[in-house]
Structures are given as structure tokens and as C-alpha cells.
Amino acid sequence: MGWQIDTAQVEDLARGAALFGTGGGGDPYIGSLLARQALADGPVAVLDLSELPDDAHVLFVAMMGAPTVMVEKLPSLDEVIEPVRALGAHLGRPVTHIACAEVGGVNSTIPVAAAAALGLPLIDADGMGRAFPELQMVLPTLIGVTASPLALSDEKGNVAVLQTIDNSWTERIARVATVEMGCSTMIAGFSMTGAQARAGLVGGSLSRCITVGRAIADAREGKTDPVTAAVALLDGRELFDGKVVDVQRATTTGFARGRARIEGEGGTVLTLQFQNEHLVAEADGRILATTPDLIMVVEGETGEPVTTEGLRYGQRVRVLAAPADERWHCPEALAMVGPGYFGYDLPAHRFDGTVSTGAVSTGTVSGIAAAEEAK
Amino acid sequence: MGWQIDTAQVEDLARGAALFGTGGGGDPYIGSLLARQALADGPVAVLDLSELPDDAHVLFVAMMGAPTVMVEKLPSLDEVIEPVRALGAHLGRPVTHIACAEVGGVNSTIPVAAAAALGLPLIDADGMGRAFPELQMVLPTLIGVTASPLALSDEKGNVAVLQTIDNSWTERIARVATVEMGCSTMIAGFSMTGAQARAGLVGGSLSRCITVGRAIADAREGKTDPVTAAVALLDGRELFDGKVVDVQRATTTGFARGRARIEGEGGTVLTLQFQNEHLVAEADGRILATTPDLIMVVEGETGEPVTTEGLRYGQRVRVLAAPADERWHCPEALAMVGPGYFGYDLPAHRFDGTVSTGAVSTGTVSGIAAAEEAK
């Protein structure tokens, strides 16, 4: 059933989305500021996927670029709706619904802001059920939805509309344009019918974010363990508990790339590899989880999600893992978002430690070492 | 009066344009192949600027990128018209005339090919009276004509339409997109009315190219000196005669950048600095000519223009200079295309050795040395 999202839910949404965002998707505080501002004049209607008419015209609205930069460049509401306006003009037919491309701090609240500013309903769904760093990495790509025409705009007023031969080319051209435009842009694209959205999206994402975000806050207030509460709702498991002892991070080619080492009791070290999002978790020469499953870092005490750009030396953190939407484990999906795509010579490891179907080689830590040497 | 361009004139046009292209604008042979193919079905009507109706809708059509790459990636006619088609659809009103953004081997013949393929008349004019490396560097920029909306397309079928806040931003975003799309794209933009075209363009460019191109060929056949014939028609002078002893060249950020040294009788060395086009000519610590005036290199015997990517060790060449359209010497124009813009701490030197108005500092060779060290 349809419901409404208002300012009271924004904080839980941003917290839950930051968790599902697996380290990416931008700072949840920035995201909630933006949504709160947009919802000041009233709530936004949210529809379930099942309520979407077949002839709906759905667009993804998102921030593209390094979230590291976004923290210092909060977009205005005008900026958020500019690519939707440009794309609507280009397509010559009105947009009827807004959807999230991914769940993640900023990219779950920017669509809320866009829907509020445009007076359009939002869909309780997203394109991934998590966050990923590149534009083509959404489930609709797997059912043939084209990213283009895609509009991108910057805070200065520059706009580009791309029409490309496939979704990877949309990513390539939009990425270099985004870097040139100041490392962060607003985008709108993946024009879908209601039927395509129902087939391609992950349903219930926003309500799930709010539920998990609320459960973490409730546990905190009730003096129970927020991480345990989150893990139960995620059907996941806790991988590690420790202190951040090393973070290497660089903003290159429009991404926040890097590696973090977390030391646990007894000196065991967990290594996380990330590119906007956490991609590989490994400890003692053993792969604990990889993309596409979800690897999440939270503050040890409060359960508050920590983004990859928020990782700091000395932080007490706990690392969680949870299953990705099962569609991410088909061979075509693994070719797009599996460890191999990101340069790790590893098969995809599910969060329970088993190797995913579509695996291309045997996973060893030397795969990581080789990928690191290659960088 | 209007006239027609046919295959018989293509060779002269390409030769003359390569001369006015001051080393840039791409290989004239490639350019003439393309135009010859396009004119196979009949000639293209060419109008004088004075014949252009006020309500005409004029577009520049050009190749963007490193001409070094273009040599290996000859565009098809479909590619040449794709950005015009995309821009026409975006603007929602028909294009009535095609114009050259610059004169230069490929960029004087691509518009001929586009006009032929689209069945539109061409204007006997261009945006510079020479060639320059960046998109905003056309005289219409000085009278407020916007480059955007600008469409660019590659041979794979990717298209982008840019709407930017100024013409320098069109250049910046189109340049990074062009590099990503394979270092060479076709573009269409600078939508102008007939009145704007008359105020902003350099008239008579194409006929001037054909006249000079023909004169060089005629002198060659008549066993007189082709270089003397060209210099007379250009109102220019011969700066130097010698042998290429050193060429440094790199294709970086979408440009062919470099330096050539030419040794004359008695060991005097002339140094040419270029970025697609020749920008500074200097010998014995004296600046002989700089952008915006025209610096041209031709084969010593035949008078055939040599592009910057065609410069080779051991070539016998002669270096000519000629005046730019006088509008290039106003302060706003010098800020856009003077030596300072390209990193040389020099005022603009006219081809006769005098310093241009709008000069910002005293020219010394140390200016070149400083710019080279900074690279």
C-alpha cells in the first residue's frame, strides 16, 4: 500500500540507507539535510512497485561522483531537479514517478528531495538493493533498460544529455564529464515504464531502510546492542569487531578508492578493499565476503553506519555482511559487479563464505595481492 | 554571388585550407577524400555572407580532437551529419545553412561533406580565418554567440548534447568527452541567425582557400616559386627557410602539442611551438610572429602545406607568416587566443615583428623558456 514519507522518517531512512549503501552513497547527514529541506512543505507520496501503472514513466535521480567531494558541495533543490527537467524536455513526455538508483546515504534522499520539489510520487524501490560505484551497475541493465538518454548537471548550470550505445558508455562519458564538472553532478536517466520498473527494481527498499534505521536507533535507546538488531533484520552476520589501524584512500578518476585495515582481539587483521563501496573483506588469508554481497561497517557501540570516506584511524568498528538481491548472483550480473570487474582475481564469495555461481576462478588472497600490485 | 563547389575544386580547397590552418585542422588529404566522396552525387551551393537571409539558421560542423588521431580514423558521411541531426532534433527547428568553424585541412572539407549529405547550402565564410585548437576560439564568441547547445558524436554511435554556461565550459566538457570517445568526434553547434553569422564570421574564406591552393599548384606547374605566389596572395612574408632538425610531439589531453626546430643556412635555428596549430615562431632570441597571426610551414620546393603532425626530421621547409583577421587583435580576443592563453609570457607579435595592441608584457625568449619549464 502507498504511504507517505515526511521529515520524521528522514533520519531513519538516511541511517538505514547508509548501512545498505555498504560504505558508499555519500554522507547520510548531508543526505538527510537535503531531504528535510525538501519535505518542509509537506510529505511525499510513496508507492509500492505493485501499485505502479504499466504506462508510468519512471526515472532514476541520483548524485554521480566521489562522495568525498559531495560532502563539501551540498546540492540545492534546483540542482537536484535540473537533470529531470532537461531529460523531460529532451524526451518530450512527462515524468510520472521518481525512483532511487541505489540505496546509500545521499542517493536515497536525493530522490526524496527531487520528488518533493517536482510534486511527483516516489517508488518504494531502488535499482540495486545496495550501492555500487558505476552507473551501469543496476538490475534494470540486466533486463535491457538503457541508461540513456541520461542528463547530468552541475551546480554552475552546465547540463549534458547523453545518448550512448550501451550503459557502460553512458558511465564512461558521464564519468569524465562529472570529473571535469567538479567531481560531483546530479543525474537523471534510465527512463522506464511501470512494467519495466516492476521487473527490474528491488522492491521495498525505502521501507526496509527506515525499518533498519529505526531498529538501530531503538536498540540504542533501549540499551540493547544495535548491531545485533541490524544483523537480524538484514539476515546477515557479523564478520569482525576491531579498531581501524590503517586507511589508504585516494580520490581518483571520480571515485573514492582505497583500503582499510581493522585489527581485532588477538591481533587478527581484517582488510577491506573499496571503490566508493566496500568490495572485498578478507582476514587471515581467507575471503569472508565480496561484492555483490553487502559488506557494511558500523561504529562498534552505536551501530551508526560508517561510509568509506568516514573511516578514520582508531575508530572502533564492527563489520557486517548480508546477502545481495539474488539476481546479482547470475553470471551476467557477476560479470558486471563481481570481484573480477574491479580487478580482483577472485570468484564472488557469498556472505556465508560459500563461493557464488558464475565464479571464474578459485579465490585466494594472492588475488588481492595481484590486484594491488597492478594498481 | 553564390557559386558551387564540386570535386574539381576540392584539392585546391584542401591545400589552401591546410595553409590557412597554420599546421592544424587535420590532414588535407583525409579532408579531400571525405569531400570528394560527399560531392560524388553533385556540387554543393555556396553563398556569400551578404546573401544570407536574416532568419537563416546556421550551424558550425567540425571535427574535434587531435588531428593526429583523425588520420587513422576517417569519419563516414553518416558520422559527419549525426551531430547536425541530433542538434536539429534538440533545437526543434531546421538548420538552413552549414558553415566552417575554422579553415584547416579537415575542418574546411567536413562542412562541405555535411552540406552535401544534408542537401544544404554552405556559407563562404568561417569562424576564425585560420585554425585554433579550442572550441570557444571563434570570432562569434566575441559577439556573444553561444557554442551550446552543442552536439558531439563518435563513430561508435554515442552522442552528447551540451548546454553550458559559457563557451569555455563547452570546450572543457566536450574535450574530456572527446578524449574518452576515442580522441576524435564530430561536432555541431554555435547555432546562429543569418544576422549573427554576417556579424561574426570571416567572409570569403572558402574562395580564398581555393584561390591560394590553386596559385600554389599553378606556380608549381609553371615552374615558378609556389611559396612566393602564396606569400603575395596572403599579404604575408617568408620568415625562414631551412631543414627540420628536431620535432618533439605528444598527443596529450586531446591535443597534438609540441615543438619543432628548423635549421637554416649559417646555423640559425627557428623554433616553432604548437598545440595543434603553430603558436610562436622565434629565432636568435627574437620573436618573429605569434598567435593570433598566422604561422605556416610549407615544403620548400612544392609549397605544399605541412601540418604539425606531418613535420618530420630532415624535411626542407619554409616558414611563412600572414596577418590574422584584425578582430583577433582586440584585447578580448588576445585574452582568448594570445600567447598568454597558451602559457607563453609574451605579448602578441604581429607577423611584421611589431607588438600587437592588448599586449600584456614585453616579449623575450625567456617567456618561452619559462613556459617550457612549466610543462
From TrEMBL, chains A, B:
Gene3D superfamilies: CV3147-like (2.40.390.10), CV3147-like domain (3.40.1610.10). Residues 166-348 form the S-Me-THD-like C-terminal domain. InterPro entries: S-Me-THD-like_C, S-Me-THD_C_sf, S-Me-THD_N, S-Me-THD_N_sf. Pfam families: S-Me-THD_C, S-Me-THD_N. Residues 9-163 form the S-Me-THD N-terminal domain. This is DUF917 domain-containing protein. It comes from Microbacterium azadirachtae.
